Amino acid sequence: MKSINKILALLVVAGTLTAGCSKKLEENPRSILTPDYLKTAAGINYSLTAAYSGLRFQFGPEGALAITVPGTDEFTTGDAANSETIQLNTYAIRSDNGQLLTPWNNDFVYINTCNGVVQYAQASTELTDAQKNQVIAEAKYIRALYYFLLVQSYGGVPLDLGAGPLGFNTVPSTVSKRNTVYEVYAAIIADLTDAISKMPDARPSDVAKASKAAALHLLSKVYLTRAWSEKKGITGSTTTAQADFQLAYNTAKQLVDNPSQYGASLFNDFANVNKPGNENTGENLFAVQHTLNDQFNESNTNAPASGLKENRACFLFTPNYEAQSVNGVIPVVRSVLYQRPWRRFRPTGYLLNTAFGNRTSDSRYDKTFRTLWLCNTSVKGFNIGDTALYMPGREVLAELRAAKKYRIYAPSDYTNQMYPHMMKFDDPNRTAANNASTRPFIVAKLSETYLIAAEAAFELGNTGDAAKYINVIRQRAAYRASNSADQNTAAVTAMTIQPSQVTLDLILDERARELCGEQLRWFDLTRTGLLTTRVKAYNNDGATNVKETHMLRPIPQTQLDLLSDKTGFPQNPGY
Fold this sequence. Notes:
The protein is mainly alpha-helical. It folds into two domains: 3-310 and 553-562, Serine Threonine Protein Phosphatase 5, Tetratricopeptide repeat (Alpha Horseshoe); 314-430, no CATH class. The protein is 41% helix and 5% strand. A three-stranded mixed beta sheet has the order 5-6-7, with no helix packed on it. 53% of the residues are buried.
């Protein structure tokens, strides 16, 4: 069709989607998947694997996080951010920004792959009816996820890639039109509704596959997001905001009120949610997989754009600990444990001091940020294992600093090089300090489903249920293994909120405490219409330039340049 297409989706090299699990999505190493191959059961299954593989562009690479993490109230940039990430953080965004080009250039390819899977699976004589239902359901879930990411970022996007709406396209074209936002949401909802109807309640034994729990989670979020769009005046809507808030609430409630039915459950301890090895467990409903074997990981495939699919999240929040001098020596050197210090994203004062202001009864600050580095090299004045760098999270008197041989960083000492390290994505199992992560990247969590239910309930005026669902998450956050039973009971009491306390700001603060840095925040702020308000209040780097037009990203200029007729494909306002 255009750059959208290179859409011979089938111009995709399918990556191996293995995980630390008993089963995997098998791979047949073909460089090009053809329509004739799609007429076979193997071709359908390998095309589905390719569609899963494409999600690696969206979750975990530097560009994917640059689009969703900085330029919010949670994170700004560190000193080593590149110019395109700085554009996104400061809202001096250009339509040739390469970080925005990557999802645009790739998502439509994999959407077309899903189109092919759906089309050819329906007509297959090799697959049983049960097998057809399974692959079609998975393909529709993946297609819905790609389209949801696109419509939130760019607004209306094409459903017709050259062969009719959601049709499989094999012939590139220079003619395309943007569908309306409402039309895209209708297609997403139709896909997810059908996927849910075809999926078994139980989680699949192959953890890499999408499940009904994941589809229910995504559908509830889609309804919630469309409801906010309708509240803001979505064009062409045939439903109301209240109707969609109710659908969001009902769908999320179906999952959170019956988690065991769908193989879902919350951890008792927040520390376990992001712990390496727990990515494919009950709370984490869907994750993008990576092979645990470095030999076959993205950086070693030599495939086109393989670096754009690497999971580098473990590097991006890491401060420059390896350059910190203490009494004339460097006591901490680069290591697998402390991650590669790329210094792309640093937490804002709001995140550290407001969202995580309660560090007594709420355990999540200590379980989210690394604030202690131990000596890991032989240097004068330190033994290996000694405290070397420490961030107590409060100001410290000069005489107390002088009494310690290690270096103390109070909040007033934080810079764009040294700050608390968000360690959710840390991968201590890499074979070398500079290697990308082999961890699966968590996309959907049951804890977020509770917060979706709470947000929808609040918008419906049901503050009682909003508080109830928020309290499930807050009370879990009160638990510390080091506490006595009485201390944990007291913390639960302190963390429990009343219906009268629920506000939209409280819900966003709760999302920050639970989900910060997880590629959600820019979408949270644009969904609720609070992007400009919160960036102006809490992100000094973005405050000057941010405006309402930044609620959408620009259509990449390279896309517009390829069109022979641009009348149906206007640039978003303000770019």
